[in-house]
Design a protein that fits this description.
single chain, about 475 residues, alpha/beta, Rossmann fold, two-stranded antiparallel ribbon, 10 strands
């Protein structure tokens, strides 16, 4: 090929052009669902060996992405071998399945460090660390959704009075009544697979998630010998059960015209914003946040961040070990935290366990046209939907006891010097009393309705449940 003057000029120009700076990852926040577990309907849910494997695999993926020194997405300045407790925070509700999932996940994020597996004492004695240098990362308990695997529905464990009332409103809506009627024959047809556990009046859309969860767990763990009608759960039937369960659960977790229904998603949004902001204000001292929670919280958060506009899949129940992550990134030169004008946020989600060459997919927040959203805009938009303080939570939930007692006292004092009969949240004491009574009644009815049987894990050994699975406080579903 002849070398022309024109081609020579092009080559010279390309060599003179400045190189584009590589993107730097400044920090990240990971949120994950637990791994495979026993069925909610049996109570005392436990993480299975399969579930342990799933969350460990997910944690290992994020180790390779954010921790490993040879990764082009390594978080800048993060310790790549021995965990630095100041750089990472981890939390989960005080619930065995979620806490154990978090522990398994973190084992993947920071695997045993063999080179730190021994220590020589002053007297010359060498002490070997257990488990080949197993690295301990503290998992803090969160205040929301305590003991959630043995609670009824999301709002029942979040203790937010107005959120409970909001979710209950779904059961009086026309959309719910329409679904209940239109799916009656479909659920009745499932009786042969369900009648060892569910009574006839429980087999309906009212128990859409509980039924899906029961069959899903049974299909995963039981052979045809233990679950004779296992082969009846075809791919098409499974998809229909999941779609109906998702429809029900999304409506319980989020309602655009009644934001308090998404209270757990709002709390999570506040925690994410706080963690990422800490990364910036601490000049990168805090680098990685990890939290485990329920699929109900996923749904609430997705709704608040307008992710269903990016994909209808965000209205569905996510699979075990699903994760989403928000990355703080920049193209600014140098090291350390640049001006916030040069910082952007990327959101990614992966449904289910990350295996093989899988990677999370990038989705656009708040209906944006770009994959990246500037930090300032992300902060402004998130603040509009996030819960950022206990007082704000108490105000939105209408609670006046527990941690909200001091807020209620302050509101009462304010009321005596201002407009009478109203709290700081704009709700009269009379209305608050009515709501409180409704919630109390819901809890009582829920306790009467809830059933937990001691026994095995096998799907065909379950005797029929009590007369009603649904409490007035919401579905007896596992929101995980």
């Amino acid at each position: 090929m002849r070398y022309s003057l024109q081609s020579g000029l092009i080559l010279a120009a390309s060599m003179a052009a400045p190189l584009v700076d590589a993107e730097r990852v400044l920090g990240a926040y990971l949120y994950s669902r637990h791994g495979d577990r026993t069925a909610k309907v049996f109570g005392n849910t436990e993480l299975t060996d399969l579930g342990y494997h799933e969350v460990f695999a997910a944690g290992s993926f994020y180790h390779d992405r954010y921790i490993a020194s040879d990764s082009d997405k390594q978080i800048e300045g993060i310790s790549d071998a021995i965990v630095n407790a100041e750089q990472i925070t981890a939390s989960a509700p005080a619930d065995a399945v979620l806490q154990n999932s978090a522990t398994g996940f973190l084992q993947g994020v920071y695997p045993p460090a063999a080179k730190a597996a021994s220590q020589t004492l002053g007297n010359g004695t060498s002490v070997q660390a257990p488990l080949g240098g197993y690295q301990i990362i503290q998992v803090q308990g969160t205040d929301t959704s305590q003991d959630s695997e043995n609670s009824a529905w999301l709002q029942g464990s979040s203790d937010c009075s107005k959120a409970t009332v909001s979710s209950n409103n779904y059961y009086t809506s026309n959309s719910y009544k329409s679904m209940l009627a239109s799916t009656k024959d479909f659920y009745t047809s499932l009786s042969p697979m369900l009648n060892t556990t569910f009574s006839a009046d429980e087999i309906s859309f009212k128990n859409a998630y509980t039924i899906f969860d029961y069959l899903n767990v049974g299909y995963i763990h039981n052979s045809t010998e233990d679950f004779p009608l296992r082969d009846n759960l075809t791919t098409e039937l499974y998809a229909q059960l999941l779609q109906l369960a998702s429809n029900q659960q999304y409506n319980l977790a989020f309602n655009a015209s009644d934001p308090v229904r998404a209270i757990d998603g709002a709390v999570l949004a506040g925690e994410i914003l706080s963690q990422l902001n800490e990364t910036i204000t601490s000049n990168g001292k805090s680098k990685l946040g990890v939290q485990f929670g329920s699929y109900g919280t996923f749904m609430s958060f997705f709704g608040l961040m307008q992710l269903p506009a990016a994909s209808v899949d965000f209205t569905g129940v996510c699979d075990y070990a699903s994760t989403f992550v928000l990355e703080l990134v920049t193209n600014a030169t140098g090291t350390g935290i640049p001006s916030t004008d040069d910082i952007s946020v990327r959101f990614m989600f992966h449904n289910g366990t990350i295996t093989g060459s899988d990677e999370p997919t990038v989705y656009r927040l708040f209906g944006q046209k770009n994959d990246l959203i500037s930090w300032d805009e992300f902060k402004t938009r998130t603040e509009k939907v996030a819960i950022l303080s206990d007082d704000q939570w108490c105000n939105q939930c209408g609670n006046t006891d527990g941690k909200c007692a001091s807020s209620a006292s302050t509101s009462s004092t304010s009321d005596s010097t201002g407009s009478s009969g109203s709290s700081s949240g704009g709700m009269s004491r009379a209305v608050a009393g009515v709501i409180g009574a409704m919630v109390t009644l819901a809890v009582i009815l829920g306790l009467e309705a809830l059933f937990f049987l001691v026994g095995g894990f096998r799907i065909s050994k379950r005797r029929k449940a009590g007369p009603e699975m649904i409490s007035a406080a919401g579905v007896a579903d596992d929101k995980k």
